[in-house]
Amino acid sequence: MLTAKVMLLGDMGVGKTSILYRLIYDRFEGQYKSTLGVEILSHDVVPTDGSDPMRLVLWDTDGDFGTQIFDTVYVTGASAAIIVSDVTRPQTVTRMVELVRGFEERFPGRPYRALLNKIDLPEAAGSAGAIAELAKSSVKPVSAKTGVGIAESFVELAQTIRRRQL
Ligand SMILES: Nc1nc2c(ncn2[C@@H]2O[C@H](COP(=O)(O)OP(=O)(O)OP(=O)(O)O)[C@@H](O)[C@H]2O)c(=O)[nH]1
Ligand SMILES: [Mg+2]
User: Which of 6, 125, 147, 161 is deepest in the core (most CB within 10 A)?
Assistant: First the structure.
């Protein structure tokens, strides 16, 4: 089976781990348990375009790394990234933009998806302005709580990885 390493990046508490729990177990937990360092999970994605299943090796990181994550060995060999922010906290959207720039610089041409999480909650003033900086790439609104947008984000990313044969 084709296997690809995908980094989960984003500020503390934006919902990286919750997004993976929704994807893999179709569950949500309201209680916050911060990831320490890095946790590695595996999930097989079945593409909707009729191609073969693909194994994503998902590297869930501690938001504390910030953009310094790109100076660590954790990112070695990454094929793609899911970069997450929290719609209720504009500063996490600014951080997401920094992480997108950092990923583009460290892995030129590799695919990523920027996810705006927690859209089940009211959007904070300022989040939209921060998103505007990412005009070139689309930011997908998602919710780990309701599940909206999660599965398709990973399927789309997997299909892009396969098309580019990464
Ligand atoms: N309402 C709502 N809460 C969410 C959503 N996603 C995550 N949360 C909550 O936000 C908090 C942080 O979620 P985590 O998944 O632990 O965040 P994280 O990005 O993994 O955080 P770190 O590991 O510390 O970097 C938890 O209390 C979650 O229940 C969402 O879509 N909606
Ligand atoms: Mg976490």
Answer: 6
